Amino acid sequence: PTQIPTQTPTPTSTSTPIPPTVSPTPSPVPTPTPSPVLPSSASILKKSQGIMADLNSFHYEVEMQIKSGDFELPMVYKGRFEAPESLYQTLSANMFGLSITGDFIKIGDDYYEKEFMGEWAATGEFEGVDPREFLTGEDNLLSLPIESEPTKLDLDGVEVYKISWGLSDMVSGTSSAGILSLLDVAGDGMPTDMLLEYWIDAESSHLRKFTISMEGDANDMGSPALPIEADTVTISMELHLTAFNEEGEPIVAPIE
Prior knowledge:
The chain is about 10% helix and about 40% strand. The protein contains 4 helices and 11 strands, in the order H-E-E-E-E-E-E-H-E-E-H-E-E-H-E.
């Protein structure tokens, strides 16, 4: 008899499981870093004034310029200070295309000067620039009543506080006459524009850089000794200080 083949059972289809939906984990919201609270400009300047007054030595460079119309007088003083009362500095200036140079020494109440191609001679007063007059004493550039907010930044790899102060920041009753006097500028008139900027070491409180620029009426701010014919004059100064309390060659009298 014919054998009937056994029917192969149809496989039962297996349903593929659907994975559960996973909700993404929300990214954490970063907490903003609070800005550091900086000391006031007044406290920064006051601390720097005390530190600068007690220095045993430092090097400095003072760049000054008077400009009015076609007239321009740039001057550069480079020197060093030794406590208690010694200064040595050189001057280079240019007026009407002529180069002017000189050397100056101050040791206590003794003063010496050497003109270009000349010999050292004793003088009755110091003919150079004493940078300590800007930094110490009752009236100086570090004692101004400045209320503007400081900022913190990097200056040549050093963290410093920068303080900027202009005419709009001037406290009522403050006069610019003292600033003009410090810069040895004749007149006591108010400049029409002025900006002072300080760069003070955030760690040591050393004043590392200071700049001032001002513009005003030539009759109020100009010097009678200068051939200024324009109506306005611009005066600027930039002071750099380095090598604080570093030992160097002693400053001695050039003649006996």
